[in-house]
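Lecture 7 notes. Example A: sequence first, then its structure tokens.
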Amino acid sequence: MYRKNRRRKKRIILMSWSFIILLGVLAVSFVVNGFGKEGKNGPVPEEPGEEITEETSNLPSEQDEKEPDTTVRIMATGDIMFHPSQLDGAYDPETKTYNFNNSFKAIKDIIQQADIAIANFEGTTAGDKVYAYQGYPLFNAPDEALDAIKNAGFDILATANNHCLDTRKAGVIRTIEQIKIRGMEPLGTFKEKPETRVLIKDVKGIRLAFLAYTEMVNGLESVLSPEDLDAMVNIFNEAKMMEDIEYAKNNDADVIIAVLHWGDEYSRVQAERQEILADKLFKAGVDIIFGSHPHVIQPTQTLEYDGETKFVAYSMGNFLSNQRVETLVPYGLTEHVSKYTEDGIIIDIVIEKKGDTKEVSIKNINYIPLWVYKGFKENGAAEHVVYPIMDYIESAELDEDSKARMNRSYADTMAQMNSE
């Protein structure tokens, strides 16, 4: 009887614990499921996978994100020449070396802001074994001239100009070699027949195509064979120009830039033949023309072709030289003409490529007027310095005569910008 009651008590206890455990399981399930489908936290989704997809569908994907716009800053300037007084001023008789860095000291910080900087290198670097280092009429500068140009920040040097054959075939070849050794690109002359005459550079995803041609070589065509002349120097040839433009377009160039050595020396107005050629090149697909040779500033123009903006600088004047009133008047030029050879300009162009449409256009054009100073050191040697006018017009570094000449230069240069 006692054992029976004891077993009965055990069953009652076991049933009680089972009931308590069941209640606990039900309570946990109730909490986990949010107090039922219509509980405090709202309806529990029947198909959570579909609901999650719907909630995240509005988040931006990599494909939907808009690509940022890209800009490339191009700076171009005119003729870089080294006359005898410049060579003498840069020479160190103790080390028997040259240093031209002083000529670029005031402009270096500006040039180095460009993504691509271009100038016309007027002359050759043939070494001094056959030709002496000399200026006009047969230019041959020391290699250190290229060092200074590179240090200033230039990337491309147009070498197709009327002085490119001054030291004949060997000079053409060595000039190209020395430019390339310093990490710059020659444009318009070649060591041998090239696969293409067009230089294409991809800068931050914008493809820039460059071509350079010269209208003349000072009658020195005969120093090369016809085959070498055709292969090594880009002399004006409309058929070749059109081929080069087509090549650029077929190779996905976003912008086509022509660097042209043309026009009439010391003329501040472009010749009709310049306008005619510019029109043909623009219609064929060129976007920008940078001109040199006259040694003075000629007008710039912003033009519209089928809704696209085109730009031409007919002549950017001298960037660095010894040409000025004091040196040219004795040779027959009037002061009125020769004073303009002291003037130069940097054309500062921003190219923009839209991230969404990939449309490429000229976004902005600025002008940086330049003036070349000539002074004398304590030892009597001349020094030539390129000054950005607006940065130095009030500088204590320059005397009143220099500032007066700067003021004249600025006014005359800006009068030519965007001229009709």
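Example B, a different protein, same format:
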Amino acid sequence: MRNYIIKRILLSILILFFVSFIIYTLLRCLPSSYVETMAQQLSMAPGAKPYEEWLAQLKGQYGLDLPLIPGYLHQLSNLLTGNFGDSWKFTVPVVDKFASVIWISFIMGGIAFILELIIAIPLGVIAATKQYSKADYAISVFALAGISLPTFFFATLLKLVFSVKLGWFDLVGLTGRDFYQLDAVGQFFDMAHHLVLPIVTLVVVSVGSLMRYTRTNMLEVLNSDYIRTARAKGLSEKKVIYHHAFRNTLIPLVTIVGGSLPGLFSGALITETLFNIWGIGYTSYTAMTAGDIPFSMFYLLFIAVLTLAGNLISDILYAVVDPRVRIA
């Protein structure tokens, strides 16, 4: 196991090298650029230098006047030394801006993911064990509705009902008007109150696919030969389902759990935008549209690292949930 993990880590470092080069190349090809926008603004000031001179000066300052390969190596050397630079869009160090917005997205994503597991897996098992019953049809309809609902439509519907009609929640934002007049406990509950609708949106639009996935895999396991053998030996239905069948259903679910690690930190762009919550998703989108190469590259590399780590965790968890799987 140790040699396998070391080998995977070394392979991941090699993959990150190529991923970082691809990301840098794509970011340099963005149609918009911060330096061009900034040069245009500076050139419009009274008595300022022409646009071309400002553009050349800013490109030299940020290393964009170098060709692609030398520019990438210059950027890579900064990354390896921990110098991630300043965000062009937000004019603060990249790490500071990232740290200020990542946790709100992680809290939203983490709570939504836990609720998704709590709701989807039990309902998926119930739908499989009671196939073609009223419960199965009801759960399937709910799952298909969640899969079919666009995020922007469902979020707008929630805002219309609970914010406009009932007035229970604010339309947008993470804090209320009197947030800074509240004590620490009051501020906590105020932020929690504003996160209810975004979290409900994330859960409803995501729970359906996991529910259907659980039901499909559970049905496949229940139709296996060893399950029929267990029933023929006289084991109780509860033990057959939850001791034998459900444990084997966990194997494909581990892939989803491991692959969900990047999603917990990547943010929910549409949801955060609709509710005007400055999480990492909304912030990274704003940075990319502004041509903010330092922040965008740091964010995308961070997601790449999490993706590789999630795949490694999935492989290790296979051996935990299934004794037949051994990593040699």
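Note on Example B: The chain has a mean pLDDT of 82. The domain at 94-321 is CATH 1.10.3720.10 (MetI-like fold).
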